[in-house]
Amino acid sequence: MRLVFMGTPDFAVPALRALHNAGHDIAAVYSQPPRPAGRGKALRASPVQQAAEALGLPVRHPVSLRRNQEEWDAFAALEADAAIVAAYGLILPQTMLDAPRRGCLNIHASLLPRWRGASPIQSAILAGDTQSGVTIMQMEAGLDTGPMLLSHAVPITPHTTASTLHDTLAELGGAMILRVLAENPAPRPQPEAGVTYAPRLTRDDGRIDWTETAQAVDRRVRALTPWPGTFTTLDDGTVLKIGAVELVDAPLDNRPVTALPGTVLDTRLTIACQDGAIRLTRLQRPGRGMMEAADFLRGQPLPPGTLLGNPHPDHD
Length: 316
Fold this sequence. Notes:
By secondary structure, the protein is α/β, with parallel strands linked by helices. Helix 5 runs antiparallel to helix 7. A hairpin with a 4-residue loop joins strand 14 and strand 15. Helix content is 24%, strand content 24%.
């Protein structure tokens, strides 16, 4: 089948490779333009562009598709049977949605209509959902509102992180889009009930609020690592990035009755929350790499009684 592929981040790469390995004719790959990255801010091609070039596929990366007649004409001239879209990052105008014979098919990392929008993987973990999945959807002008062609669920466990769920769903999406192209299932309208939206994340979403429950803090760390990352602060404004935590199940015999949320309770970095406690297992101070808690404490002790979480907006 003659296809156009449209995607940008790592999530889209398994689908691109699956389509190529299955023998589909990929006429062009669209990806967002190279962006400055790293300490030197040199331009870096997206993961999809890098994968496409390694496969010998032509890549287009328009800055915008809005009122871009030249790009619309180039897209139509590809005469694709379908366009496969996976986390591309640009809104497709109606003229592009209508150009391929079978339209544009989106690989979305949620069980629609739950978690339409930009951060479905993180939002599912944050909310305490017990499952996530992939939906292949026929695209239309609305935000992830199109009819569904195929969906498949996977469990979210108490140990699932955004990274592990991302990788699982990325591979699943590649297998599912092959099935949709082969079987051409009938579209099903999305249910009107159960619609939720996953907002675009910012760095401040990673600020730990110790007045939340221990379970909520644990979910935030699992959901927002590695991006945008979670952090807390010391009373001097020092930002501590948090890479991993664990729930403390045993009773805290030495916990002061009056300990405020955010209080360091012992020498193992057990932190009081509004309800229960968590233990920091990986963290990072400014100018250093992420490290295990024991290694961190050798360089910067945090004695019991230290209070974490004072606001400090100027974090990295």
